[in-house]
Amino acid sequence: MDDVARLLIERACERLITDYARFVDFGNAARIAELFTPDGVWEGPGVRMEGQDAIRAGFFKREGVTRRVSRHVCTNVAVDVLGPGEARGLSYLINYRHDRRDGEDPSAPAPAGAPKYVGEYHDRFVRTPDGWRFAERVCTLAFLRPPSR
Predict the structure, then answer these.
(1) What pLDDT digit, counting tens, does each position of 35-62 carry?
(2) How many angstroms separate the Cα of 88 from the Cα of each of 1, 33, 69, 81, 125?
(3) Whole-angstrom Cα distance, residue 134 to residue 148?
(4) Which residues contact 73 (CB under 8 A, 6 or more apart)?
């Protein structure tokens, strides 16, 4: 595989990571299912969703939490191309999250504090007839903010 082909694959996979964060942070979380293969898997602490329908349903619930302000900051993105149809990825995740209370101005910036959590996404990407998709996305946590008292 030549360098240009490898770079195009890396960029397509990086775009999936970016689209994922944008969808969840800007009220379109159910669209995350479009980024997965039909039998794709999303897994995080205590949660496993298998297949686009389950992923769509799971993230539709998140989409309904309109009081929540979040930013999924993905950095240190590394995509390893394994071949013309498969790649693996690792990216660091920093998640800032605030649930607005009744009466809070929804247009005001949310209060800042420590991130809700810091961890990694471990991804497996595959090429499909519709382009590159997540076959598997596993979120692991390294740091977790303690609950408010």
Answers:
(1) 999 999 999 999 999 999 999 999 999 9
(2) 16, 19, 29, 7, 6
(3) 34
(4) 21, 93, 94, 95, 96
Find out whether 98 and 67 touch, Cβ atoms under 8 Å.
no
- Report the C-alpha gap between 107 and 2 in whole angstroms: 48
What is the side-by-side order of every strand in the sheet holding 86-99?
47-50, 36-44, 131-144, 117-128, 86-99, 68-83
Reported as a single tens digit per residue, the pLDDT across 90-139 is 999 999 999 999 888 988 999 888 899 999 999 999 999 999 999 999 99
pLDDT at residue 149 tops 70? no
Alpha helices in the chain, H assignment, sequence order: 3-25, 52-63
* H or E element that contains 48: strand 47-50
For residues 65 and 25, give the distance between their C-alpha atoms in angstroms, rounded to a whole number. 11
